[in-house]
């Protein structure tokens, strides 16, 4: 299967689409043909990193008979979605994590991975709405917005208080045409040199809509819109809003991440024969014959292939310690990768509940550094059990793209004060306990940075890279990019071993409306001819 995003056969759902998809234009990329499983002595692969990308790669390889060792530096699987136990002041043992994650229906390949242990997605709960609030009183919702483009965009514009009739003639319709026909890598060729902020300013979107909707979405990449590539933002709108008929409502795990996701998948990998080694950071990789020698504490193993499924810092560190695994150009590009600014996840256990009409998840804008609020007992059973026992609420607050020099204690206090502004009933609540998780390990997709991002394949035919920082050539982002890249890395190795690849799915690989695509194409040609 080509990783370029071109040449895949589109298959309608009636012809075998993703099991829980409603979009009949979802795009299918069949796996390369080959033997159902490896024949003879199975090759040996090392997957470095036990997050979504690493688990996807290990699963895809082991299901075809490859002998896999999965290395994870932390004590548990899950990467940036890992969870761990903590004991509260009231004696309760609960699970802490790095925070809320939305599992959109567009995440076809991630959902396919999770279905290995949960075929009917019973460990997921759909939230009924995705509300957005601005501090000046404006509120948006996606609950009643049509899911199929272009009616989704029109429905949102009609229903949203941020769009007014007098704003529409002021918009730069020609400048907005790139939103109507998004293709990879074309969108990066055209917009990677522009910031998300400048692109929105150039098309003269209403200021209120800019702040409420677009800024909320762009900050999901943990970056200020002035530093985020417009190409990444435009691709995001294609995936979630303008190119897909899945809509913007999403599911969430109904138990903490370890219970709902990683413990079942870890057990599944072990049943496949995968050697899962947590608390085992890989320190060095060196070429050895056609393969590699992998060195970790107390272990020195010869393997035929490697998949590096690491975050930016981990990939850079291992590349520095393993100078011979790829050519100089690859090492130089990896060294130039950047990490997004720090973010904060604050979880509060309150002695009284918030109002019963508060949503499970709320995106916010204009409330200082507060980006969203979650009420965990609305959807997570562990939190609900605590809430019923203690008579309170479990609240989670996120702040993205925090200034690196900020006073962290002050930021934590500020989030609590902003919670009081969003949900005034919390002013009288006592915080039974709190946990504050500061992290700075998400990839930054800066203006002009696309060329430096590693592709799945490297200069070494048996070395692959996976993760949400990777260029896949497909319209995927965030967790879905991690899962897809892990499968692509496995497929690339399976292809070399003449073994059947895994079928992948994405949202449509270009704009849905033919007329709008034609307008966008004409505009592109006119723009290119004027250069």
Characterization of this structure:
Helix content is 31%, strand content 18%. β17 (361-365) and β18 (372-375) form a beta hairpin. The model is unreliable at 1-15 (pLDDT under 50). α1 (52-62) runs parallel beside α14 (478-496) and α6 (196-202) crosses α8. It has helices spanning 52-62, 108-114, 151-159, 173-176, 186-191, 196-202, 207-218, 230-242, 257-271, 312-321, 328-336, 381-390, 408-422, 478-496, 514-529, and strands at 27-29, 44-48, 67-71, 83-87, 93-97, 103-104, 124-126, 132-134, 139-140, 250-253, 275-277, 284-288, 291-296, 299-303, 305-308, 343-350, 361-365, 372-375, 394-399, 431-439, 463-465, 504-506. The protein has 3 domains: 13-79 and 256-339 and 454-506, FAD/NAD(P)-binding domain; 145-248; 341-439, Polyamine Oxidase, Chain A, domain 2 (Alpha-Beta Complex). A 7-stranded mixed sheet has the order 9-8-17-18-19-16-20, with helices on both faces. Strands 11-3-2-15-21 form a 5-stranded parallel sheet, with helices on one face. A 3-stranded antiparallel sheet has the order 6-10-7. The chain starts with 26 loop residues before the first strand and ends with a helix. It is α+β, with helices and mostly antiparallel strands and 531 residues long.
Topology:
Blueprint: E1 27-29, E2 44-48, H1 52-62, E3 67-71, E4 83-87, E5 93-97, E6 103-104, H2 108-114, E7 124-126, E8 132-134, E9 139-140, H3 151-159, H4 173-176, H5 186-191, H6 196-202, H7 207-218, H8 230-242, E10 250-253, H9 257-271, E11 275-277, E12 284-288, E13 291-296, E14 299-303, E15 305-308, H10 312-321, H11 328-336, E16 343-350, E17 361-365, E18 372-375, H12 381-390, E19 394-399, H13 408-422, E20 431-439, E21 463-465, H14 478-496, E22 504-506, H15 514-529
Parallel strand pairs: 2-3, 2-15, 3-11, 8-17, 15-21
Antiparallel strand pairs: 1-22, 4-5, 6-10, 7-10, 8-9, 12-13, 13-14, 16-19, 16-20, 17-18, 18-19
Helix pairs in contact: 1-14, 2-14, 6-8
């Amino acid at each position: 299967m080509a990783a370029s995003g071109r040449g895949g056969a589109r298959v309608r759902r009636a012809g075998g689409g993703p099991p829980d998809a409603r979009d009949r234009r979802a795009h299918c990329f069949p796996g390369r043909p080959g033997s159902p499983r490896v024949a003879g002595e199975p090759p040996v692969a090392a997957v470095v990193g036990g997050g979504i990308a690493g688990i996807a790669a290990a699963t895809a390889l082991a299901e075809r008979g490859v002998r896999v060792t999965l290395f994870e530096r932390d004590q548990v699987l899950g990467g940036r979605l890992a969870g761990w136990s903590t004991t509260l002041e009231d004696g309760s043992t609960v699970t802490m994590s790095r925070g809320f994650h939305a599992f959109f229906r567009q995440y076809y390949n991630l959902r396919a991975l999770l279905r290995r242990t949960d075929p009917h997605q019973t460990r997921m709960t759909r939230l009924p709405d995705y509300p957005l609030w601005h501090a000046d009183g404006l509120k948006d919702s996606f609950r009643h917005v049509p899911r199929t483009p272009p009616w989704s965009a029109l429905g949102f514009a009609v229903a949203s208080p941020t769009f007014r009739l007098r704003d529409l003639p002021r918009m730069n319709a020609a400048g907005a045409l790139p939103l109507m026909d998004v293709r990879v890598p074309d969108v990066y060729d055209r917009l990677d040199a522009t910031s998300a902020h400048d692109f929105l300013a150039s098309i003269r979107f209403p200021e209120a809509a800019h702040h409420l909707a677009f800024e909320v979405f762009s900050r999901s990449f943990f970056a200020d819109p002035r530093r985020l590539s417009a190409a990444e933002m435009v691709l995001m709108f294609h995936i979630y809003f303008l190119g897909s008929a899945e809509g913007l409502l999403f599911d969430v795990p109904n138990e903490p991440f370890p219970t709902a996701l990683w413990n079942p998948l870890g057990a599944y990998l072990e049943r496949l024969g995968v050697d899962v080694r947590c608390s085992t950071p890989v320190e060095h990789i060196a070429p050895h014959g056609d393969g590699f020698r992998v060195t970790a504490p107390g272990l020195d193993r010869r393997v035929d292939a490697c998949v590096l499924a690491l975050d930016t810092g981990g990939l850079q560190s291992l590349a520095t310690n393993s100078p011979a695994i790829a050519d100089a150009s690859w090492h130089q590009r990896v060294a130039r990768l950047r990490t997004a600014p720090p973010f904060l996840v604050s979880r509060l256990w309150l002695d009284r509940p918030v109002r019963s009409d508060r949503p499970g998840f709320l995106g916010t804008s204009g409330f200082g550094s507060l980006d969203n609020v979650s009420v965990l007992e609305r959807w997570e059973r562990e939190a609900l059990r605590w809430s019923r026992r203690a008579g309170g609420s479990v609240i989670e607050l996120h702040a993205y793209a925090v200034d690196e020099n900020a006073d962290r204690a002050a930021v934590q206090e500020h989030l609590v004060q902003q919670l009081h502004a969003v949900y005034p009933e919390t002013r009288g609540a006592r915080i039974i306990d709190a946990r504050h998780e500061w992290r700075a390990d998400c990839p930054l997709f800066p203006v002009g940075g696309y060329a430096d991002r590693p592709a799945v394949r490297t200069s070494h035919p048996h070395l692959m890279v996976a993760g949400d920082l990777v260029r896949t050539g497909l319209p995927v982002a965030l967790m879905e990019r991690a899962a897809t890249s892990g499968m692509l890395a496995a497929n690339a190795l399976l292809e070399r071993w003449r073994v059947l690849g895994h079928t992948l799915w994405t949202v449509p690989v270009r704009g849905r409306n033919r007329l709008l695509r034609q307008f966008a194409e004409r505009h592109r040609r006119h723009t290119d001819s004027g250069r």
